[in-house]
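Much of our argument rests on the idea that a fold can be written as discrete symbols. This step matters because it turns folding into a mapping between discrete strings. The record that follows shows the chain in one-letter code together with its fold in token form.
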Amino acid sequence: MNQSRIRCVGGIALDEDGRLLLIRRANDPGAGLWSLPGGRVESGETDNDALVREMREETGLEVVPGELVGVVERGPYDIHDYRCTAVSGNLSAGDDATAARWVSAAEFTAMDHSGALVPQLADTLRSWNALPTS
């Protein structure tokens, strides 16, 4: 039986200090855990359009999409993660996020060790060379 796949996008954004943008998820999967901002691609949207919309809705930031970094499958979701650059806006949690923040390398490692990140996020970003650099 073929399971219907749901196309999603995620944003990998680093600030000028090399910190990674994360949001705390309000809803399942992963409610209460930290993840990359992103969400479902709506009918008629391109990945870039969805990424710009989702980043604005979840973080309050306007972004310029960059290259595709990788694709992961999580349950019924095919998540296409793109580098992006925040160009304007004020960081604030919204939509499906209860919090949004820039995270340094040390903070990211501590979040990973404490179980605060969605499963497999740290390993995936490490394999893509997309961890915070500060």
